[in-house]
Amino acid sequence: MTVPGSQNRGTTRVRSRNNRTENSVPKKVPLRKIFRVASMGCGIQFGWALQLSLLTPYVQELGIPHAFASLVWLCGPLSGFLVQPLVGHMSDRCTSKFGRRKPFIVAGAISIILAVLVIGHSADIGGLLGDTNQSRPRAIIAFVLGFWLLDVANNMTQGPCRALLADLTGKDQRRSRIANAHFSLFMAVGNILGFATGSYSGWFRIFPFTITSSCSVNCANLKSAFLLDIAFMVITTYVSISAAQEVPLPSNRSTNSENERPDLSDSVHEPFIGELFHTFTYLTGPIWIILLVTSLTWVGWFPFLLFDTDWMGREIYKGIPNEGQNYHTGVSMGAFGLMLNSVVIGVTSVVMEKVCKKWGGGFVWGVSNILMSFCFVAMLIISFVAKNMDFSAHDLPPAGIVIASLVVFTILGAPLAVTYSVPYAMIATRTEALGLGQGLSMGVLNIAIVIPQVIVSLGSGPWDQLFGGGNSPAFAVGAIAAFASGLVAILALPRSHTGKPRIIHV
């Protein structure tokens, strides 16, 4: 039986719902603006490149043993575990007139600038507080504090920037892949500039004021490189935030998913931890597989990113920190290899969309991880050959060993570009379809990244010491994890994804 007027009321409700949907869906943002927003990745990654190429050797110059060097890097995963989900949660609900993401991006950029100033001047700070050249406990404390602040600031900046790209592309998987490929491209540019900066050893001549009684040539080069990092951060932050025209979130709204998640979006004051755990209950099977593959992938990557230049200085050039020039020459050559690696990241990022469109994101991700595993195995073989070659009478190792190492560094750029792009695009489109806030969604993905980093940071130093103190044991674990992640991605992730619209019954 039909109730009189019920059909008209139902039609009115449907029209009202359709009007709300049309009004809530923003117009497509031009790709040129997305390109400018993604340029923030250049400034962020320039600083990361300096960290990866210079700070592990610098840590050991300050007097921290190799076995404990990985513990210094533990701050990054720990801050990422808490900071990025929290910042994402806050940015999803931010009602600032400047937008949801911009305030956090700017605050993070300012924090990065403060952090690199502390790191670059840590030796000077220690000298002012009473350190000597033989004992630098105060410099170590200043360095660690600055390093922790830097990792907090990086997480505070990168998460909202990724979320902003997801906001601008919405549920369109193709545009999401393009946006993240742009971000990966700018990360490659930042890497190239950062590693080129780290591999140049003459900055102290250009900035002679950086040399002090407490800060030698190597320290002055580090300090000068971070001054350049500050300039890059200022430029890229301005270019990025000036391109994004964010619509302020009304104070009576907490997310942009009004109809899809009423139990979360209507709870503005829900505590962060409750919101985070509540988010996990909405994750589908494919999302859990993405998180699993991400975790295994980073078990593979983190030993390499942590010890790449140190591996070149110790195991290829057979150098010892603070003893002779072989170690520093090896570190510089490692930075050059990472620069070549970044060139491949940039090239791969340009063709990423076409490759994923043809083969599917999951398959491309899996193949790239297997390639990464083979590269780590090649590094183990190179280490074994170098260890058993007698070139002690020469100042440098044979050219063939160095070239082979550089080739491996270069090839690893392709899987690293995939890691920087495909998981973010896959998680963004799937969580958008579920109505999850993009800031918190990026934080959830980051948890899958930092948990393996914590494990590697805690275990790699003792694990390496157990087998003689080199980097090869950690690379062996990384090779196994990378191969496993590749198999899971190929077998369990769909090659393509077409989001199905959610049907909301009235």
Automatic annotation (TrEMBL):
Spell out the subcellular localization from the entry. Membrane
Q: How does it sit in the membrane?
A: Multi-pass membrane protein
Q: Which GO terms describe its molecular function?
A: sucrose:proton symporter activity
Q: Which InterPro entries match?
A: MFS, MFS_trans_sf, Suc_symporter_pln
Region feature Disordered, mapped onto this chain? 1-25
Q: Which UniProt keywords apply?
A: Membrane, Sugar transport, Symport, Transmembrane, Transmembrane helix, Transport
**Major location (coarse):** membrane
Stretches that traverse the bilayer: 37-58, 64-83, 104-123, 135-153, 183-204, 224-244, 287-307, 327-351, 363-386, 398-422, 434-455, 475-493
Renumbered to this chain, the Polar residues biased-composition regions fall at: 1-11
Q: Could you name the Gene Ontology cellular component terms for this entry?
A: cis-Golgi network; plant-type vacuole membrane; plasma membrane
> Which one GO biological process term can you cite for this protein?
sucrose metabolic process
What the entry lists under Pfam families is as follows:
MFS_1
Look up the record and name the pathway of this protein: Glycan biosynthesis; sucrose metabolism
Family from the record: Belongs to the glycoside-pentoside-hexuronide (GPH) cation symporter transporter (TC 2.A.2.4) family.
Q: What name does the UniProt record give this protein?
A: Uncharacterized protein
Q: Specify the species.
A: Papaver somniferum
